[in-house]
Amino acid sequence: MRHPGLLLHLFLLALLTWSCASSTDDQDQKSVSRTPPVLQIDSVFYLPDQIQLAARAGQVDELFHRLRRLTGFNGTVLYAESGRVVYRKAFGFEDVRRRRDSLHIDSRFELASVTKMFTATAVMLLLQNGTIQSYDEDVRNYIPEWPYEDVTIRQLLNHRSGLSRYESLAHDKWSDKTIPLTNEKMIDLFVEHQPSPYFRPDRGFHYCNTNYALLASIVERASGMNFEDFMEERIFKPLGMYNSLIHSMRNDTIVSAYIEQVVPGHDLRGRSYIRVRNDYLNGVMGDKGMFSTVDDLYRFDKALTYQLLINDTILKEAFTPGSPRHRRRVDNYGFGWRIRTASDSAVYHYGWWKGFRSFYLRDMAQQRTLIVLTNTDRGPGADHFWNIINDEELLLFPASVNVQYEMEYDLW
Predict the structure, then answer these.
(1) Residues with Cβ < 8 Å from 143, sequence gap 6 or more?
(2) Which fold, 48-390?
(3) Which residues contact 263 (CB under 8 A, 6 or more apart)?
(4) What SS3 class is residue 367?
């Protein structure tokens, strides 16, 4: 071999190169081994409640589509559970007869007797403010011309006054039915004709619209405000219920053909529906006469849940049975709410008036609320709706509570 030095040099150079490469590989491997793997967090965690939420919404949707097919259900629906809206949808038409003008989720319906819970809320606000001192005050403290003795505000709230129906009195004694009957004129009819009560005050229970019409008049006399203005300023605006109103006819000299800017009601006549005309009795407020949407009613529901308007001490009386147990009485009555005997936490009210039906079901323990508004006098019964409230197949986790409520209006 002629160049042993050169070969040795090349050998040493190759050995050095291999050694450096090997060292680098070891360092790279150590570096890789020290770097934590990238975890796909989104694939590790999932929200089981969202799956249940979708399944619950699907159940409710399936029911109402079935009711639409089988009963012609026409209206709007909102179902909420555990602090969140699960389902809200509109079905059908404003003009039911001609099947035109689709309903929307913000369509405004006559609540009929569901109005009573709002009238009761107005009275509770008066007590909370100190404008009235007690539910046990005599009605004549505010309506001195009232011709019946020993009738209290509490008895009106609980339907235990024994007073007769103003509708029957007006049917016989209000001669010109083209002129609206107002709350003040209703009082005048009782003063003039003094129909016999059904029983002495607090001797029984009799659901009667006169009670809540009188409560609306007490709200007016005690507050110095028209009932519709009181409701707007003290309840609707503070709670953001901007699509709600009390229909007033106090300044109308004649009954209009229809009530404008709201969904029209329909009655079934034979095989077809007719649009229901306005009526002279619609001038009486408090027992009915409120128009609203499912979204606005849910705002009210949240205000009840978190005591945003009425404090808990006063509010709890609304859900306290007002009458003793009786074998013939299926459910009891609080302040503007029926109290379901079959449950220890469910309250509700239904409404039915001049082409409208409404349903407001509320289970306070389970935080479940179902609101159904319709503009037809026929449709599915309440049993279908209670099945939703009582269904325990799927339970949702409670939503986190983050109530930030700033009153835009000075309530008192």
Answers:
(1) 187, 214, 217, 218, 221
(2) Beta-lactamase (3.40.710)
(3) 94, 103, 107, 108, 109, 110, 375
(4) coil
The backbone torsions φ and ψ at residue 366, rounded to the nearest 5 degrees and listed phi first, read -90, -5
Strand ranges for 201-289 from DSSP E? 245-246, 266-269, 272-275
Active site members: 113
> What does the domain layout of the chain look like in residue ranges?
48-390
Q: Check: CB of residue 139 under 8 Å from CB of residue 146.
A: yes
d(CA 249, CA 219): 17
CA 83 to chain centre: 13
Distances (CA, A) of 128 to 123, 236, 365, 402: 9, 17, 25, 25
pTM, whole model, 2 decimals?
Answer: 0.86
Summarised one tens digit per residue, pLDDT across range 261-287 is 899 999 999 989 999 999 999 999 999
Q: Strands 368-374 and 346-353: what pairing? A: unpaired
Flag whether pLDDT at 244 surpasses 60: yes
How many residues are given for the chain? 412
- Residue 348 phi/psi, 5-degree rounding, is -165, 170
Check the CA dihedral 213-216-222-224 and report its sign: negative
- Residue 307, both tokens: 């005591």
- Report whether 145 contacts 135 (CB < 8 A): no
What would the mean pLDDT of 342-352 be, rounded to a whole number?
92
